[in-house]
Write a structure and sequence with these properties.
The protein has strands at residues 2-5, 18-22, 35-39, 44-48, 53-58, 64-66, 73-77, 84-92, 96-106, 113-122, 125-132, 136-137, 143-148, 154-156, 159-167, 173-178, 195-198, 212-213, 219-221, 223-229. The chain has 231 residues and is mostly beta strands. It folds into 2 domains: 2-58, no CATH class; 64-229, Jelly Rolls (Sandwich), CATH 2.60.120. The strands form 3 sheets. Strands 6, 7, 9, 13, 14, 16, 19 and 20 form an 8-stranded antiparallel sheet that branches.
């Protein structure tokens, strides 16, 4: 937990503004009027009224960042093959830390597994793996699942990244978007594109990606990152 004292307290408040920060679960009991607490995991500022904590401001919209661009329609579809890693672009607009990567799926029996990962980019193509999950069991049909990264949390700065996943079964149908206009562009500057890579068999997404354009694939799989904290 960290704390500071502001130099310019609002009118009527003597001695400055006491502000502490930390996880929501670490917030102390109420009882000190006009003390503020910034919960870093839910991006919410609380004020102690002397009897209870009240919300001063919240930024819930920053909790999840989707890899969604322009689209024609929503669909669900099975993976191309169990030996393929699918890479989809995501834009991070501010410095933050993430701890999970999510996706949606249907038609799973609860016996299938996935890996998820995040990559940096060079020339708007995935290159170096920054974080990866363990092989994780899909829960069951019709799920939104968020998979933890083995690194715990990863700090990202503003930029262009790629989310990736690999599944050991062709049975589950993952939420995706129709994006014909961005498939295998003649020039990457035409817009964001997505990639796939044949790694031979189901396994950990590679430490260094060597993907190709998805020249025969007109869908982009929907994934997102869960923000763990912001500076």
């Amino acid at each position: 937990m960290s704390s500071l004292r502001g130099r310019d307290p609002p009118q009527g408040l003597q001695g400055g503004i006491a502000i502490t920060s930390g996880l929501l679960a670490a917030r102390p009991p109420a009882g000190n009027a006009d003390v503020y607490y910034w919960a870093t995991d839910v991006f919410t500022m609380f004020r102690d009224t002397g009897a209870a904590w009240e919300v001063v401001s919240a930024q819930w919209y920053q909790r999840y960042i989707l890899n969604v661009f322009d689209t024609d329609a929503w669909h669900s579809v099975t993976p191309v093959a169990t030996n393929r890693v699918h890479y989809t672009p995501i834009i991070i607009e501010r410095t933050l830390s993430i701890d999970r990567i999510g996706l949606c799926y249907d038609n799973a029996a609860g016996t299938e597994h996935i890996y998820v990962a995040i990559y940096d980019s060079v020339a708007e193509a995935p290159v170096n793996r920054l974080g990866v999950s363990a092989s994780t069991l899909l829960l069951s049909a019709s799920q939104k699942q968020q998979v933890a990264l083995v690194e715990g949390t990863i700090r990202l700065t503003p930029g262009y990244y790629f989310l990736a996943y690999n599944c050991d079964s062709m049975t589950p149908e993952f939420l995706c978007l129709m994006m014909n206009n961005f498939r295998n562009p003649a020039n990457i500057n035409h817009g964001p594109s997505w990639y796939e890579e044949n790694i031979g068999a189901y396994g950990i997404p590679p430490a260094v990606a060597t993907p190709v354009f998805t020249s025969t694939w007109d869908k982009i799989f929907v994934q997102w990152v869960r923000v763990a904290s912001v500076p």
